[in-house]
Amino acid sequence: MSVEPRKVVDEGIALRAVGPDSLLARLSGPSDLKGLSAAEITQLAEEVRTAIIATTAVTGGHLGPSLGVVELTIALHHIMSSPVDRIVFDTGHQAYPHKLLTGRLARFGSLRQLGGIGGFPRRSESPHDVFDGGHAGTGISIGQGLALARDVRGSSEKIAVIVGDAALMSGLSLEALNDIGHRQTKMLIVLNDNEMSISPTVGAISTYLSKVKLSGTWRDSKSRYDRIVGAIPLIGQTLVRFSKSFRRSVISFAQEPGRLFEDLGITYVGVLDGHNRVQMEEAFTSAFNMPGPVIVHVRTQKGRGYRPAEADPITFHGAALPKMEVGVATDSYGKAGAVPVAPAPKKPNYTSAFAAELVAAAADDRRIVAITAGMPTGTGLDTFAKAYPDRFYDVGIAEQHAVAAATGIAMGGGRPVVAIYSTFMQRAWDQIVHDACQNDQPVLLGVDRAGLVGEDGTSHQGMFTLTAQRQIPRLVIASPKDEQELRALVRTALAQDHPFALHYPRDSVEGVPVRDPKPIPVGKAETLAEGTDIVIVGFGPIVQRGIRVAERLRSSGLSVGVVNAIWASPIDDELYRRLGRSTTLIVTLEESVAAGGFGGAVVESLAADQAATGQPVRATILSIGIPAGAFVDHGSVSDLRTLIGIDEAGIERQIRAVWEARRPS
What we know:
Distance between the termini: 26 Å
CATH superfamily of the domain at 350-503: Thiamin diphosphate (ThDP)-binding fold, Pyr/PP domains
CATH topology of the domain at 350-503: Rossmann fold
Shape: globular
Structural class: alpha/beta
Number of strands: 19
Radius of gyration: 28 Å
């Protein structure tokens, strides 16, 4: 069912932007950095930024984060020896400079396109890519695992992890830091602070203490002092305790952001200028010579070197960027850059429709509160925050906490709504099962980006959540065929008393006429058209594709019905069992993994009916969805749907093939 990947952009965009004679073009790998002068490295940094801006102006992508870590990435590669030494990017959306420094300039113009360079580190692309990232908060644990494996082998490679300030506060990161401090794992953690989430302490005392703490003199002298003084009879240990307390107080006074890490047993250094390569290299080199773990806190600027991104880091974070015109204006360094131009008006998407209905519902019900995990803009809940700031909670990158806290709010009489991308909802699996569903609390889970999301690739496709959630008792699961039904399902969820998962894609809405969003009966599907030869049953907006495919099949003289399933749990058993006895072919459609998904629910229902009644199922069942057994890589949503056969043409092709093979003679 697959098609050949097609190139949608010119792979050579980045190479042409910097020129074939540029330093970046002549770089065969990061080892070549060691032969460059300071002036050449400064020039190289400018070329890296030029390549990133030129490419993302065409392909989109995480522009701001990557521009912010150019000097940081160069500094690490300059003093390390990748791929023997390991550089782990937590999340990985800031890895564009790393990709360019590790030999991928020629193909960088294919960034995030079908068959092209990935937007996150990918081990299949390069030995320099240590870990297939995409989700925040995983990098420190991965880095520690690499360091522990190194220590077991008795080798000496350096391990560095780059983690953002927001990801550092995720539960997984804190668990890893606690273990690293306990085990004194030798590794470097670079805290990339670009969101002002951690208050900086910048000044002479902070800079001085950073240098002192990394010096051998400081380490040796404080250890020697503790040994000598501790040996004094009667008062020695008291003096040692006083000395340690005093040192902690001085460090806490001068470097308050680092107190947490120091208490965990991790040496903290910072705050350093994340665009001063020499300063960072000195700190990193000293950190690698320390016997235990070190956190170096650096302050970087999102969008560094591109004035529009510096001024608006949220919009230019990525992955869908404003339209950019290359070569019109200059950036803050006086180099030719790109400027945003007014984009064409976009149709509202399902996310905005969900958020708007939630805001409307909250006007009449003060019990409604909204929660998100570090994604207020992406989930559309920034509009709720503006309307009802006292009822909005952004808990940061802590999906587990978001769902558990929502359960507590529901127990307290509230009506919590938790909006999280489908791919990140996976992280809250235990809380959905154990907290919300086991306790049967009315938590509304807004499963945003359900289905294919496109260019962000394997880590972000929302393809597994439905299959997993369908197994959970008490969880009502629904997905609309259009935005007006989405509005009605929001009202339905808020009007009932059980946990409720509402799945919706990132797609633009259908543009159907506005209607009153009245609650609809739970578990009852909607028959859109009757048919006896074939009945297409779709779950979610893929119903729209099913409607159009049915029209084409009818042109061949077939009797084709269409059902809007609406519900994946509970399903409309009565309807599907009737169709199983009266229809030749039932086709289920879903933009989710087909194995164990909505189609599986229909098959299970028919099998249970046959076992209970002894009446045979007449219909052949064809379940069309995302094939199981493989991750879906990056590319535009339309290209990916074509590639795996769930676009209109692919759906029609599969139905006709089965019909021709199974139809009555």
